[in-house]
Amino acid sequence: MPNEPVTKIRLRRFAKADMEAVLGLVAQIASGEDLTESAGQQFANELANPQFEGGRFVATVDGRVIGTMGCAAGPIPSKYVLWADWLIVDSEYRRYGVASLLYDKIEKYALANEKTWLCLDIGNIDKERAAYRFHLRNGFQIVGQLPDYWGELEHLNIMAKSLISKE
User: Fold this and answer.
1) What Cα–Cα distance (Å) separates residue 35 from each residue in 62, 91, 101, 118, 151?
2) Which of 58, 71, 94, 166 is the most exposed place for a label (fewest CB within 10 A)?
């Protein structure tokens, strides 16, 4: 755990050399299944595809990867939307604003690519209460739900945020 406030957080694009550290972050997710295999395959595919429509970023402190987040067109691409995924912050660095910095980077990336919406799957709202509240505070709202998508009482909850002010 950091002994002093974290002030030297750097954000940059995800690179192949980051794979092991990022998969270490994925392993910190409390899940009944090993998510590192699917995440590793997804991240490797992104790195290998020069036409990949999206971005993945890492947060570092003194060269150590402490967080990650990405965004992509999603399974049904739209010229207006990117889907955010894999927001993970090392357990030792939570509550230092790392997630907010990563989201800000993703939103700027989306706007630079002329997207007007950012969407995500929040997962089980009851089990992921802190993540749910974080997203609400950051302008997201639930726009849909697919019941039992991930298993019994494990709903896929779709949240969205407009990146363009409607005022």
Assistant:
1) 27, 17, 24, 23, 15
2) 166
Q: Nearest 5°: phi and psi at 134?
A: -55, -50
Residue 79 three-state SS: coil
Give the 3-state secondary structure of residue 135.
Answer: helix
Q: Is 12 helix (H, G, I), strand (E, B) or coil?
A: strand
Type of residue numbered 120: L
Per-residue pLDDT of the chain (167 residues; tens, 9 = 90+): 555 555 699 999 999 999 999 999 999 987 777 889 999 999 999 999 988 989 999 999 999 999 999 999 987 889 999 999 999 999 999 989 999 999 999 999 999 999 999 999 887 777 778 888 999 999 999 999 988 887 888 888 899 999 987 65
